[in-house]
TrEMBL record:
One of its GO terms (molecular function) is metal ion binding. Pathway: Pheromone biosynthesis. Pfam families: polyprenyl_synt. This is Farnesyl pyrophosphate synthase. The keyword Cell wall biogenesis/degradation does not apply. GO terms for biological process: farnesyl diphosphate biosynthetic process; pheromone biosynthetic process.
Amino acid sequence: MANLFLRRALSYNQFRTLHKTAIKYNAPVPITFNMYKNQQKFREVQAEVLNTLMSSPRFEHQLIDVEHWMTKIQAYLLTVDDIVDASQTRRGKECWYLHSDVGLGAVNDCGLLLTCAVEVMDLYFGKEPIFSDLIKTTNRMLLQTSIGQYLDCSSGYSKEKNNLDKFTMELFNSIAYQKTGIYSFKFPMLLALTLVKDGKNKYSEEAQKIAWDLGRLLQFQNDYKDVFVDDMNTGKVGTDIQEGKLTWFAVTALQRCTEEQRSIFKENYGSDNPEQVKRIKQLFDELEMEKVYKESESELYDDLVRRIKALPTKGETQFYLEILEACCKHLY
């Protein structure tokens, strides 16, 4: 038993070293909102909700371990996202995989982040009856998020594929929920409720729908920042147009296009040629996409506030209202 604990402790220490290295080079840690100014706010919300929902005092001293475990899982997901999207920067610094001494070794680092996170959870909860539920909840989230990542990667437009028929709001909503909504909003709540007796039965159907719409909100906020906000403010160079991504802006623009404008979109979208990228941005301006976006964001925000306040439990209401504030602070 002592040897087993030692091995796990060593794994944990190695993981902490890897994690600190990743932070140093700005591999993503917790998910961020509103141009990454609310990182601490999001961590505080997660911790507060977990603390509120934990009914057993014996879990209180492990709260920080649960919170950190969640951020390690998110670090894994966002590091993978940077590799898959061929991103250049994350939070204003070069992505982890682009460092000359890392390269594709970042793929293995992702595996280390994920498996060591599970080891940490095993170390603290391995003997608890809820351990299998924690693992199942996490694995289900990873599966759904990976499906969302696949849909995001496989639905991009290029002239060669000529696949604008895939650019539907239905597919965008599915990607937003699978890739963003589940691990950002649904997963933290399910994880906390797993630590409470009969907790999963307290997660209402309406709360799940709210998680869906929060994922949609966050995704089209990300789409907006990719096109309209300078990378000095977002910390990430926008590449959605160049990669031909299925975004809220692309789908909505196509719904508003004339036949002539649609031809311009088909000719220029999905190219890394600066002039073609510029032409797409001009098209977005012609279609008043920034105005349409702000109206849609405000409308969704008002709807979410109304629905969140009507949730049956205080914990759900508190969690989602504070997350919504972090997402939409500029609307307050």
